[in-house]
Amino acid sequence: MLRSVEQRLVTGSDEDPRVTELRTAVSRLRRELAAHPAEFPDRGIAEDELAALDAMASGGAPEVPRLRRSLLLIAGAIGSVSALAAGLAQVRGAVELFGGPQPGRD
Fold this sequence. Notes:
Layout: H1 2-11, H2 17-35, H3 43-58, H4 64-78, H5 85-96
Helix pairs in contact: 1-2, 2-3, 2-5, 3-4, 4-5
């Protein structure tokens, strides 16, 4: 997280560091998923939701409920593929930067 803030200060970018972190995490997991040799039933769902996250991040400040929904779908689709666990954890961490669950709004 600090890396993104420092990166923004060095490059002079006005992009929200949370968005930068999300874009980085999504990009990593997309590459790992593309390189993963095994086919599994929900791979297409994971690919579609990663594309949706990428589009949301590219558009600026994404909607938090939509981020969480995409994360749940991705986790459900690839959660049992241990080779993708680190990339999925990075995406989860990036989504959490946008705020935790609101009390009474789960």
